[in-house]
Amino acid sequence: FRRVLFRSYSRSRIEEHAAYEANLIGALLARGVPTAAVVPSVKDAPLRVEGAPTLLYRWLGGELRKKPEYPIGEIAGALARLHAAQIADPPDLGQDFRFDDTCMIWLPAFERYRAMEWEDAALRQALDALAPLAQWHHEGSHRGALFASSPHVHCHGDVTPKNVLIDQTGGARFFDFNNAFYGPRLADVIDGAFEFSLAEQYIHLADFGRFPAFVDAYADIAPLTPGERDDLVRWTELIGLIKFTKELRVVLQ
Description:
Helix content: 40-55%
Largest sheet: 3 strands, antiparallel
Strand content: 5-15%
Distance between the termini: 27 Å
Oligomer: single chain
């Protein structure tokens, strides 16, 4: 069992997102994307554990590699194929959960955190330095222009080492679509470039040489549009701001 807790939206939408996640997984499997299948609940009744909506998954074999070195080419290539399968045959899953919703949770949160009193001088300096970038991305027309150049798909939403299994042949398989959303594919690509550079809890092994390697390996399978190439710096700003703000929340908690 795994309880579904979709943290980027209000708790009232958890059950709705659980259904979306199950439907997305079914659509990916139908398009030949390997991932952990959802076991249908008895008589199609929602499965609940301790009152929470819950998805039950079939076993997906493989090895987690949370610690570097990562098979970047295989992982970024798997993400590219996950996206390409949808571009070739778009699934009819609606757009109830959008990347811009996520932006409008975390960009205002950044401003709230920046207005707080922080004793750490370095953190205060970082907040002030990032403020102009946050203000630029807070403008809806700026985000709209940024998103327009990137093909839209149902993104994984959490492209991290803990959500990728490496099978016996070296192939990569994404699972855990708990943070999935509909939006520009670069949201996933830049998220993955950050996460595999930072190496999760192995931060002492962080290497931002893996950042361009991830993007390039993705593009080898699913070439970026000229607009996406032009916007890579802006995308790095936006995803970096969201990640930074999420870490501030952890500090406050």
